[in-house]
Specification:
alpha+beta, Phosphorylase Kinase, domain 1, three-stranded antiparallel β-sheet, 12 helices
Length: 351
Amino acid sequence: MNELAPNTLLAGRYTILGPLGAGGMANVYHARDLNLQREVAIKLLREDLIADAAFQARFLQEARAAANLLHPNIVTVYDFGHDSGRMFMAMEYVQGTDLKTLLRRRGSLPIEESVGLVIQVCAGVGYAHRAGLVHCDLKPQNILITVDGRAKITDFGIARALATIHPEEYSDVVWGSPQYFAPEQAAGGPPSPASDVYSLGIILYEVLTARLPFEAPDSTQLAHLHQTASPAPPRSLNPLVPAPLEQIVFKVLSKEPSARYRTADQLGRVLMTFAPRATVADLPPQALPVRDPSHPPEAFTAALPQPAPGVSGVDWLAVGLGLLAFLAVGGLIPLWLWACLMYPSCPLRLP
């Protein structure tokens, strides 16, 4: 089943060192690039899918989508090629593990670590959103954690370009992972950046509680839960979760896309209020979510002073003082004209 033995030479350039993992579409290997003398990860389309044109197209789409995304929180794609009819891509080799394996090993993560990791993921996903892509398959298995705690997103196999998504589109086939996709995806509707935000909400829930908000024996029941059910409050599973953070989780898990944050950048900026300054300061500027000044997150706008109920927001004292100032200045203009005309050298006098 497409297993490559160690020391296999791929495309005359990549020496296979050993397996890293396997997925539904491809196997991943640790390899060495003989030309550039560096370690890489090789993602090789599975042998039983080589003749499937649809999977070939998805594999090529993933390579092209990821190759155009250069961000510290996204795995970099270096190369794409063929070898004896096999399609492969060469990617950045990440020393570490995926987030799902980390959660199985450690259970729920401390609040600061959980929020810090999700902020990094938001930065990468937000960058993809600004580049016009929706990931559509965000889950802990697709988030790699380096040995020094950096999060890197991978697997853009079913990513969609925003320009190709039509609001009225519908599909009987739902791509993605049932535990993590948004209600609109579960219903066969079009994805959007808010769909990725929902998936990030599931991931945030899981790293805080070591539980998924919805669990069912099959994908049909899971889809129904995403569309109709409310998750257990995170604080009922982990009392250390701050109440405001729990409210953010509920917001991003809203059934309606319009009720969530619009993009991953917005969610990341809100979560930064819960991260210790040292955690945020340790991240490079390009690994921080970008603030959209035209759509400030609710967590920031809610802190602005609001007029009391039944009280007009107009400051009538300021209006009155402004009117008096206008009348005072306006009254001086005729006096100035009269004084000017008294002098023969006045530029306003007619010749």
